[in-house]
Amino acid sequence: MGKLNNQQVIQSLTSAFGDRISVPSEPYGLLTFETSAENISEVLRFLKEDKELKFNYLTDITGIHYPEQKLSLGVIYHLHSLSNNVRVRIKVFIDGDAPHIPTATKLWEGANWMERETYDFFGIIFDGHPNLVRVLNVDDMTVFPMRREHPLEDPNRVDKKDYFFGR
């Protein structure tokens, strides 16, 4: 295959998964695509175990929240093929009312803490995770602070009044 590039990666993915891979783009040269929660485990396994692609390093798992969308929560995966020096970003959007997605800990043990952090801040449940409990916030916290469900500022703060800023 020679030096691996984004086009070869997306061709391999399209050959293996067809329309289960969607919205491919390359913002700032980073190959980005979407798949579904039903397909994410199979896509991650393919990227990691394919003899040509070798995306063996899980850089990050995090969440995003778009409350105006029907599938309001997203899980973002960043993978790196160390031997090919190529990176990919995978986005999976899920229902914010039932935020379930399979765990990646079966492929990368390092996913453990990343998934716990994503659960802690976004409330995304990683099915099959060995110990999905809060990792940074207090255990009895009832909200997920990175969701865009709360006002950004306390409306009662007196130091934020417009007249202090000449408005």
Explain the overall architecture:
The protein is of the alpha/beta class and 167 residues long. The protein has one domain: Beta Polymerase, domain 2. The protein has three helices and seven strands. It has helices at 6-17, 40-49, 111-122, and strands at 22-25, 31-35, 57-65, 73-81, 86-94, 100-102, 125-127. It has a five-stranded mixed β-sheet with strand order 1-2-5-4-3. A two-stranded parallel sheet has the order 6-7. It is globular and about 60 Å long. The mean pLDDT is 93.
Draw up the topology in text.
Elements lengths: L5 H12 L4 E4 L5 E5 L4 H10 L7 E9 L7 E9 L4 E9 L5 E3 L8 H12 L2 E3 L40
Parallel strand pairs: 2-5, 6-7
Antiparallel strand pairs: 1-2, 3-4, 4-5
Low-confidence segments: none
Shape: globular
Q: Average pLDDT, to the nearest integer?
A: 93
Give the helix tally: 3
Biggest sheet details: 5 strands, mixed
* Computed Rg: 19 Å
CATH architecture: 2-Layer Sandwich
Tally the beta strands.
7
Strand order, largest beta sheet:
1-2-5-4-3
The name of the CATH topology is Beta Polymerase, domain 2
- Proportion in helices: 10-25%
Please indicate the percent range of residues in DSSP E strands (runs of 2 or more).
25-35%
The CATH homologous superfamily corresponds to NADH:ubiquinone oxidoreductase Nqo5 subunit
What class, by secondary structure content?
alpha/beta
At the first level of CATH, what is the class? Alpha Beta
Number of domains: 1
- Give the end-to-end Cα distance, rounded to a whole number of Å: 62 Å
Question: H/E element string?
Answer: HEEHEEEEHE
